[in-house]
Design the sequence.
C-alpha cells in the first residue's frame, strides 16, 4: 500500500497556465465517461437490470432469515479446518519467504544478478490470485485441505517475501557497517545485525497475511480445496439459504475475532 | 522486540523470571496451535498419478495453446481478458462513487457527532469482511450468472475498503481553508466545493486506482463461480485437464495484471 500523502496541488499562479490545465481535465473526464459507457455496453450492466434483479435479491435475503442454528455443530469442524489451513499455509509460506527476502534485499551485498531475477519471480508469484493456485493444486493433489494449504503457502510467500525485503532494505545500516568493520562474516551480520531489526516487521507481516489467509481459506472450498467453502457451495446448490446464512455469519464472527486479536498483537510488536 | 520488558532497577530477578514464564507460556501456546493444525491438514500421500499429472502440467505450461488467443466465433482469451478488465473498471467506478457519502459519514470531522461517524465506520468494516466471492455468489442468485454479477460484487466489496481510505483522507485535511470560508460566510455546500474537495480529490483518485489493481486480480477469479471474465474458461479448462489451455490463460492473466499495474502506477504517480 504505497501512498504518498501530499497536499493538494496548488493552483498555478500564472493565469495563462489555467486554460490548458482545464482542457486537460475536461478531456480526462470525457475519456473516463466514454470508457464507463463502453464498459457497461460490454457487460450489459445497466441500472434497469439492477432494478429488475433487486426483488430477487430481497427474496434471497428473506430466505436467509432466520438462519438454521441447528446446522452450527455440523459446520464447526470444517470451520476449524479452515483455520488450520490458514495457520499452516501462512507459516510455511513465511518460512519459505525468509531466505528469498534476504536474497532480494539490495543492502546485504548480494549480487544484482541474483536479487533482480528473484524479485521478478516474486512479482510473477504475486500476480496469481489464491483461488487460481487452489484450482490448480486441486487438479494435481486431489480435492482436500492439502491443496488449499499449498495454495496459501504460495500466496503468503509472495506477500511476506515482498514486504519483508522492503523492511530489510529500510533497516538502520549502522550496526551492519560496524559488524563488517570488525570482521564479521555475512551469516553473522544477518544473525546479529539484520534479524533483530527486521524480526518485529516480519512477525507483523506474518500476522497480517494470516488475517488475509483466513478470509481466503473460507472461500477455497468453492474450488474443492477444503474448509468451510465446500459446505457453503453445497448449501447454495441445494437452495438451503438458511444454512448458507449461518455459514456466512460464523465466518464473519471468526474473521472479526481473528482480526481483532491479530491487530492487538501487531500493535504490541511495532 | 518488546520495549516494555526492560527491567526496572532493584527487582531485576523477579521481572526476568516473569518474562521467562511469559515466553514459555507463549511458546507452549504456539506449539499447541501448530500441533492442532497439523492434525487437521493431514498429508494423504502423493497419489500414484501425481507424477504424470505434474509432467503434463509442466508440458502444458511450456507449450501454451496459442490457438486459444483469438477465436473468431466467441469465447477466446482476448475476450475473456477484456471482460475481466471491463468488470474491474466498472466495479471500481461504482465503488469510487458509492463510497463517497459513506466516507463523509464515517469521518469524524465531517459528520454530525460521534454516533454517526462510529456507525459509519462499523458499517464499512462489516462490508469489508465479506469476501467478494461470497458477494458474487449472492449476486449471481439475484441477477443471474454473467459479468454483471461480477461488477456488482466488486463494486459492493470495494466500498468497504475505499470508504475507509477515503474517510481517513477526509480526516487528515488541512482545516485552514475550511475555517476561512466559513468565516467569510460560505454555506456548507460552498465549503465542500471549494475547501474540502480540492484537497481530497487527488488522494481519492489514487486510492481508486490502487483498488483497481486489486480488483483486476479478484476479477480473474470471479469467473470460477460463474460471475464472468477469464475465470470461466479457466475452470472449464481445469476440469477437462486441458493443461495447454490453462497455460495460455495463466500467461494471459499475468500479462494483464502486469500491464494494468504499470499503467495504474504511472497514472498514480502523476496524480499525487
Sequence:
Amino acid at each position: 500500500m504505497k501512498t504518498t500523502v501530499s497536499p493538494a496541488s496548488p493552483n498555478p499562479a500564472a493565469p495563462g497556465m489555467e486554460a490548458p490545465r482545464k482542457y486537460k481535465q475536461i478531456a480526462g473526464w470525457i475519456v473516463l465517461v466514454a470508457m464507463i459507457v463502453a464498459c457497461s455496453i460490454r457487460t450489459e450492466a445497466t441500472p434497469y437490470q439492477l432494478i429488475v434483479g433487486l426483488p430477487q435479491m430481497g427474496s434471497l435475503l428473506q430466505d436467509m432469515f432466520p438462519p438454521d442454528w441447528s446446522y452450527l455443530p455440523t459446520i464447526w469442524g470444517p470451520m476449524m479446518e479452515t483455520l488450520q489451513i490458514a495457520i499452516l499455509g501462512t507459516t510455511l509460506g513465511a518460512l519459505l519467504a525468509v531466505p528469498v527476502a534476504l536474497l532480494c534485499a539490495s543492502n546485504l551485498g548480494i549480487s544484482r544478478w541474483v536479487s533482480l531475477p528473484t524479485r521478478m519471480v516474486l512479482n510473477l508469484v504475486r500476480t496469481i490470485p489464491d483461488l487460481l493456485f487452489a484450482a490448480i493444486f486441486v487438479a494435481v493433489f486431489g480435492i482436500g485441505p492439502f491443496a488449499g494449504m499449498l495454495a496459501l503457502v504460495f500466496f503468503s510467500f509472495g506477500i511476506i517475501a515482498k514486504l519483508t525485503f522492503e523492511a530489510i532494505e529500510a533497516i538502520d545500516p549502522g550496526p551492519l557497517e560496524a559488524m563488517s568493520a570488525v570482521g564479521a562474516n555475512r551469516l553473522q551480520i544477518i544473525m546479529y545485525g539484520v534479524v533483530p531489526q527486521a524480526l518485529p516487521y516480519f512477525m507483523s507481516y506474518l500476522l497480517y497475511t494470516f488475517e488475509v489467509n483466513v478470509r481466503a481459506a473460507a472461500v477455497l472450498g468453492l474450488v474443492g480445496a477444503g474448509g468451510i467453502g465446500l459446505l457453503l457451495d453445497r448449501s447454495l446448490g441445494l437452495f438451503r439459504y438458511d444454512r448458507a446464512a449461518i455459514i456466512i455469519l460464523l465466518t464473519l464472527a471468526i474473521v472479526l475475532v481473528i482480526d481483532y486479536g491479530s491487530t492487538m498483537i501487531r500493535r504490541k510488536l511495532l | 522486540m518488546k520495549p516494555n520488558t526492560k527491567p526496572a532497577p532493584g527487582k531485576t530477578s523477579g521481572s526476568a523470571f516473569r518474562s521467562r514464564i511469559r515466553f514459555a507460556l507463549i511458546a507452549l501456546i504456539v506449539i499447541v496451535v501448530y500441533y492442532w493444525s497439523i492434525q487437521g491438514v493431514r498429508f494423504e500421500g502423493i497419489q500414484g498419478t501425481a507424477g504424470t499429472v505434474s509432467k503434463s502440467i509442466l508440458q502444458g505450461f511450456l507449450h501454451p495453446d496459442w490457438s486459444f488467443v483469438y477465436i473468431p466465433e466467441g469465447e477466446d482469451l482476448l475476450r475473456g481478458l477484456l471482460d475481466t478488465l471491463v468488470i474491474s473498471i466498472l466495479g471500481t467506478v461504482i465503488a469510487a462513487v458509492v463510497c463517497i457519502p459513506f466516507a463523509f459519514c464515517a469521518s469524524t470531522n465531517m459528520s454530525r457527532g460521534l454516533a454517526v461517524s462510529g456507525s459509519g465506520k462499523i458499517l464499512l468494516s462489516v462490508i469489508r469482511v465479506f469476501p467478494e466471492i461470497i458477494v458474487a455468489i449472492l449476486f449471481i442468485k439475484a441477477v443471474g450468472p454473467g459479468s454483471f454479477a461480477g461488477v456488482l460484487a466488486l463494486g459492493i466489496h470495494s466500498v468497504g475498503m475505499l470508504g475507509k481510505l477515503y474517510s481517513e483522507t477526509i480526516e487528515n485535511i488541512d482545516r485552514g481553508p475550511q475555517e476561512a470560508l466559513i468565516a467569510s460566510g460560505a454555506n456548507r455546500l460552498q465549503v465542500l466545493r471549494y475547501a474540502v474537495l480540492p484537497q481530497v480529490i487527488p488522494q481519492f483518485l489514487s486510492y481508486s486506482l490502487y483498488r483497481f489493481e486489486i480488483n483486476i486480480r479478484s476479477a480473474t477469479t470471479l469467473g470460477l463461480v460463474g460471475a464472468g471474465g477469464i475465470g470461466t474458461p479457466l475452470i472449464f479448462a481445469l476440469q477437462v485437464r486441458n493443461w495447454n489451455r490453462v497455460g495460455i490463460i495463466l500467461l494471459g492473466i499475468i500479462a494483464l495484471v502486469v500491464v494494468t499495474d504499470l499503467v495504474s502506477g504511472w497514472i498514480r504517480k502523476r496524480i499525487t
